[in-house]
Amino acid sequence: MEPSLVTNIGKIQLDKPAMLASGILGISLDVFNRLYRSGAGAVVTKSLSNEPWEGYPNPTIFSVDGGGWMNAVGLSNPGASNFAKMIEPNQDVPIMVSLVGSIPEDFATMINEFKNCNVTAFELNLSCPHVAKVGLEVGDDPELVKQIVTTVKNSTNVPVIAKVGLGTTHYLNTVKTAIDSGIDAITAINTVRAMAIDVETQRPILSNKFGGLSGTPIKPIALRCVYEISSKYDIPIIGCGGISTWEDAIEFFLAGASGIQLGSAIGDNWINVFDDINKGILQYMTKKNYSTINEMVGLAKKF
Amino acid sequence: MEPSLVTNIGKIQLDKPAMLASGILGISLDVFNRLYRSGAGAVVTKSLSNEPWEGYPNPTIFSVDGGGWMNAVGLSNPGASNFAKMIEPNQDVPIMVSLVGSIPEDFATMINEFKNCNVTAFELNLSCPHVAKVGLEVGDDPELVKQIVTTVKNSTNVPVIAKVGLGTTHYLNTVKTAIDSGIDAITAINTVRAMAIDVETQRPILSNKFGGLSGTPIKPIALRCVYEISSKYDIPIIGCGGISTWEDAIEFFLAGASGIQLGSAIGDNWINVFDDINKGILQYMTKKNYSTINEMVGLAKKF
Amino acid sequence: MRWWDLQRNFNHTTIVTIEKVVDETPTVRTLYFSDDVMSNVLPGQFAMVWIPGVNELPMSVMISKETGKAAFTVRKHGLASTGLFNIKSGEKIGIRGPYGNAFDIKEGNLLLVGGGTGLVPMMRLLTHVKPTDNVTLLIGAKSQEEVFFESLANELLKNNPHKVIVCTDDGSYGEKGFVTDIVEKLVNESHFDGVYTCGPEKMMYKTVQSAHSKGIFVQASLERMMKCGVGICGSCCVGEDLVCKDGTIFDGNHLSQNKEFGFTHRNKAGILEDY
Amino acid sequence: MRWWDLQRNFNHTTIVTIEKVVDETPTVRTLYFSDDVMSNVLPGQFAMVWIPGVNELPMSVMISKETGKAAFTVRKHGLASTGLFNIKSGEKIGIRGPYGNAFDIKEGNLLLVGGGTGLVPMMRLLTHVKPTDNVTLLIGAKSQEEVFFESLANELLKNNPHKVIVCTDDGSYGEKGFVTDIVEKLVNESHFDGVYTCGPEKMMYKTVQSAHSKGIFVQASLERMMKCGVGICGSCCVGEDLVCKDGTIFDGNHLSQNKEFGFTHRNKAGILEDY
Ligand SMILES: Cc1cc2nc3c(=O)[nH]c(=O)nc-3n(C[C@H](O)[C@H](O)[C@H](O)COP(=O)(O)OP(=O)(O)OC[C@H]3O[C@@H](n4cnc5c(N)ncnc54)[C@H](O)[C@@H]3O)c2cc1C
Ligand SMILES: Cc1cc2nc3c(=O)[nH]c(=O)nc-3n(C[C@H](O)[C@H](O)[C@H](O)COP(=O)(O)OP(=O)(O)OC[C@H]3O[C@@H](n4cnc5c(N)ncnc54)[C@H](O)[C@@H]3O)c2cc1C
Ligand SMILES: Cc1cc2nc3c(=O)[nH]c(=O)nc-3n(C[C@H](O)[C@H](O)[C@H](O)COP(=O)(O)O)c2cc1C
Ligand SMILES: Cc1cc2nc3c(=O)[nH]c(=O)nc-3n(C[C@H](O)[C@H](O)[C@H](O)COP(=O)(O)O)c2cc1C
Ligand code: FES
Ligand code: FES
To answer: Which of A259, B239, C60, D52 shows the smallest number of beta carbons within 10 Å?
Structure first.
């Protein structure tokens, strides 16, 4: 049988397994359309908040010498309401709307804004490592995670994904809380809190001092998180972190992810990275005789 | 004034700030002598346990495609008693003895083995990410950290360092507990738990499946930990993680470390890395007009 | 040696020292520094410029007459550009890049239309024209005191058949009126092989319209909010294009199909605003 | 393309398929596979060989007569080597490397002394001798059934003046006695320009002693517990040398100053043990 790139991430079915990760190019419907045509199975929006946020001053992003990127964009975004209006015309593109907030009501309000939009899933960003009061500060508080997930699940029939990362508590506890509260899938992982200092001026480079490390450096960390989650819980997983080649994608499938997201690779290889990955996955599937992505998911766990 | 490489890490004074990190080449006194002659300010031994440990079967170490190394050596070591006998003849080399164990008594017994040895410091490995019952499982338990540090401090007059890493609890809590229990300095950080899967055989590569990521990928993470610790606590810090050039060393000084350790860089650049780093630091000091390392420590915090 | 030492990583911020500062107008300054890479960028390329402790901004790379040197010509505006404007000789800034594509320079009769600091890429373009090209440069400014680079342009073009025309909105210098009116007139009167423009979006929009509607090859260098400069953050999008990565230079064919060019841009939060 | 695609990263494990397995003795097998890099290693270099699910071992890279191919010749011993020994044609193993330095091959009269799988680097060395070299190869084995590579060696040396001498401990084949007694005899009788040895440490120790005490250039390829193969773990140390990185090949000058060579080695826990 011809191999197919269709994947089922729990209730979510996508034509192709590789998605655009949140925060990368994710600001306009036209760009979403372009990425979809380039081979992305879905696009995740920038994390949206109730109110528009300007984010931090520049420098907000830079390329790390040893590989990868560091950013502290500060979750700049046009706000859920503006954004919802912009994507209302969308018909074709599977859009996952990423949300960030500090109390359950934030999320309920925002979900309501999208009632006229064609949304494939909501992704709750519980793990931004460099913005106070949202992100990891939320993800590290189990009671809050429970309330947010419960509220969101009561506000929508669209599948809801929780995005976790390495915070100050054990991310596996956040995963468990989210699952117990009815989450449909987990995205792992967000960027890892990090820093760089310019030795000439002796200053932290990012205006926010701390930022999130993404790209190749975090791939081995993200992969172990996916493997740990899939070994411990029976929940659909989207792998994210440092994926830039089809081999990386396969590694995440084997570790237990049924979908993947990528961001930094676009900075390195531009948007044809989706097509390259799709082609490589198909070749691998042909060679190994798989007809569906889901046949591969979690195979490395048997060893 | 001619710049000097002498550094004071609290009570510990070293002629040069860059040390060999624990677990790298750290198995024989002859090799320690060689590294010292190559420009290392001190050598940290492999983490020693009460009994000899064979460690895990190979593969235990491999080079990560995106840069850096992953290892799950499994803390193989000849045991504290054998090791102490081996280093008894040591006169010249500042040796820091790294210890690993699961109960306070383990540490007390081991420290006693070294009573006839010339030891510059003990480093407590509270943060190995891939061996059960020791390392991070200890570091993540504040009560145990307290007991171990207290016991060790009561067993010796030699300065005692706690080595921390990213575990399942917040490492800053471990740091605080260690400080409250009388620790003399902190080494940050150990390797970061990670994984890699071979797509051809579909197996985790390391025999232990999980391992610790080291080298360039973790540098931005280690640097932020040093900056976070030095911003929050008044304790001498040794920076460790991905340091391979003099610029890296300076970054860690500016973030608040008064000494540095390196391991993976030896795999990339062999042991002349110490000499290269020393030369680079001296040039930087000359250019910036510093006469001592300690003048630079923590300068990036003022921004 | 590490792999990234093999060649300079263009995404890595290099620290340079400002060696000379020249006042062009009361609100525009040119800051010179030494850097081999920046001295040789293509016309239209930009750098991300870090003003330590202040911000990081996209800036077109200005030419220098001295080899191995380059410059930025900055207009003082908000906090960030004022920070750069206030950098003194001897102080340090960080640069990464060059980023962006370059003008596709035709041969023959060329028309260049620059407004304000949009003249910067035009000056570098002038260093790339053939001696046989007949070059017309239009400089738009609000008033006499805002005019700069006129004599530099004449000097750069001294071996070419050329014309440098300045227009000021208030007529205090050169011709009175909008530069785009002159563009419309020129493309009606004469044949051009290429039209190039950089400056305020409305100016570029009209220039592109005038030339493109006559079937003349035209390129504009767009400005949008830029955070990363490398195609990651998305803040510079204009329609489905990312200005930093697909541009900054687009041609008339492409621009005439873009619904946002000339009308809207996104602010720091990413909200679409009218020009 | 990422930087590490620019060339094969020698530290990255490459998966190869075993294409042919040859029994050399009841306990020694040679496993052939295709790999350009391994087919061209220098004499004395080794690879780290991953037997998936079992272990990873250092192995000298054996020659193949076919271009683009290489092999490992393994003696079944503990769990790991038995795992490799049991790999069948069509099965996959991982390889990384080559690691280690190479023999410094002199010209003239050469004496090669190999025992057991220590013959592997000797075979590759034979492919590097000059046609004018006069080569004597001593093969040591316990008994007749443990003798291998004798005819291969004769074939490789067919254009050279040469002698292949086999000794067995029990005299069941070739000369009776220890190979090192013959070494002592030969270096007393004849002039040699270079002596090369690989095999059991005591054999190498005596060979080095015999040659070095006569002032003859001699090199031995050492074996030590290896975990990383790249100079990180320290498990392969012998005195202040790291066998994987400084060696595996050391010369008589260096070895005669090493207190551990010939006497002690470290086990998996790093404890010094007597040979
Ligand atoms: C490719 C490119 C080249 C440029 N070249 C030059 C040049 O050579 N000389 C020059 O003076 N200016 C140049 N600019 C404009 C410059 O980057 C700033 O936009 C301008 O200096 C005002 O910045 P501000 O933050 O001081 O103003 P603010 O008052 O903070 O902002 C005013 C407006 O400036 C724009 N702006 C602010 N920050 C950015 C940013 N990071 N990226 C893009 N636009 C921003 C926005 O439209 C904003 O609304 C260029 C812009 C781009 C995109
Ligand atoms: C550079 C080098 C080249 C080698 N080339 C060959 C070769 O071509 N053919 C061959 O059959 N053998 C070769 N060996 C030896 C081989 O690596 C194994 O040591 C041997 O096969 C026994 O391994 P085992 O684990 O099965 O035995 P075990 O019974 O587990 O161990 C027996 C002894 O083997 C040694 N050993 C075990 N593991 C290792 C290891 N990872 N590294 C080094 N020594 C180890 C130790 O001395 C140990 O005490 C080479 C060794 C080195 C260092
Ligand atoms: C510039 C930038 C902005 C990001 N913004 C967000 C965001 O708004 N919300 C979010 O959940 N993750 C955000 N992330 C994290 C990414 O979605 C992703 O989890 C991370 O970059 C790891 O994937 P990568 O290595 O493929 O980039 C951002 C990452 C980058 C580089
Ligand atoms: C092969 C290897 C073995 C290690 N063994 C130990 C150990 O026994 N005890 C310990 O505290 N850290 C150990 N580490 C961690 C290092 O000491 C160091 O914290 C880490 O590698 C980060 O530094 P680097 O990036 O310079 O290698 C080991 C690291 C490696 C690569
Ligand atoms: S500035 Fe970030 S994508 Fe263009
Ligand atoms: S095998 Fe690890 S240092 Fe030699």
So the answer is: D52
Query: Which is it for the CA torsion D204, D210, D213, D219, positive or negative?
Result: negative
Give CA torsion, residues A83, A87, A89, A91, to 10 deg.
-160
What's the whole-number average pLDDT of chain B?
A: 95
Q: Omega before B189 cis (within 30°)? A: yes
Domain boundaries defined on chain D: 3-99, 109-274
B&D contacts, CB < 8 Å: 128
Q: Using CA atoms, how far apart are residues A233 and C194, in angstroms rounded to an integer?
A: 63
Dump pLDDT digits (tens) for C32-64. 999 999 999 999 999 999 999 999 999 999 999
What confidence category does residue D122 fall into, taking pLDDT thresholds of 50, 70 and 90? very high
ipTM summary value: 0.95
Convert the pLDDT of each residue in D123-143 to its tens digit: 999 999 999 999 999 999 999
Strand order of the β-sheet with D69-75 is D20-25, D28-34, D69-75
Which CATH number does the domain housing residue B181 bear? Answer: 3.20.20.70
Ligand 3 neighbours, Cβ below 6 Å, are: A 21-24, 46-47, 61, 69, 71, 73, 75, 98, 125, 128, 163, 190-191, 214-215, 218, 240-243, 262-265; C 232-233
Residue D5 has what pLDDT?
A: 44
Q: Is C88 left (phi over 0), alpha (psi -120 to 50) or beta?
A: beta
Within 8 A of B60 by CB-CB distance, chain D residues are 56, 227-228, 233
- In this structure, which residue's CA is closest to atom 21 in ligand 4? B214
User: Given the structure tokens 């191999």, which residue do they identify?
Assistant: A3
The residue-averaged pLDDT of A144-158 equals 95
Identify whether B292 is part of a domain: yes
**pLDDT confidence of A136, banded at 50, 70, 90?**
confident
Q: Residue A58: nearest ligand to its CA?
A: 1
Number of CB atoms found within 10 A of residue C134's CB = 18
Helix (H, G, I), strand (E, B) or coil at C242: strand
- Do you find a cis peptide bond into A59, omega within 30 degrees of 0? yes
Closest partner CB to A61 (pick from C233, C242, C268): C233
pLDDT tens, A253-266?
Answer: 999 999 999 999 99
Establish whether residue D73 lines the binding site of ligand 2, counting it when its CB lies within 6 angstroms of any ligand atom.
Answer: yes
SS3 D3: helix
The answer to whether C2 contacts B244, with C-beta atoms less than 8 Å apart, is yes
Residues of D with CB below 8 A from C4's CB?
A: 3
**Identity of the residue numbered A149:** V
Strand extents, DSSP E, B78-159: 95-99, 121-125
**C109-274 fold:** Rossmann fold (3.40.50)
Q: Which long-range contacts (CB under 8 A, 24 or more apart) does D186-190 make?
A: D186/D111, D186/D136, D186/D138, D187/D111, D187/D211, D187/D214, D187/D216, D188/D214, D190/D109
**Do residues B229 and B178 touch, judged by C-beta distance below 8 A?**
no
Give a yes or no: residue A2 inside a domain. Answer: no
3-state helix, strand, coil in chain A (%, to 5): 35, 20, 45
Residue range of the domain that includes B213: 7-302
For the entire predicted model, the pTM comes to 0.95
pLDDT at D7: 56
Q: CATH homologous superfamily of domain D3-99?
A: Translation factors (2.40.30.10)
- B1, part of any domain: no
Looking from the CA of residue D72, the nearest atom of ligand 2 is 8
Quote the ligand 6 centre to D261 CA distance (angstroms): 16
Tokens of B79: 């045991």
Find where tokens 């309501």 sit: A112
Three-state SS at C194: strand
Residue C263's region, left for phi above 0, alpha for psi from -120 to 50, else beta, is: alpha
- Domains contained in chain B, number: 1
User: Which residues of B fall within a CB distance of 8 Å from A70?
Assistant: 220
Pairwise CA distance, residues A125 & C233, whole Å: 17
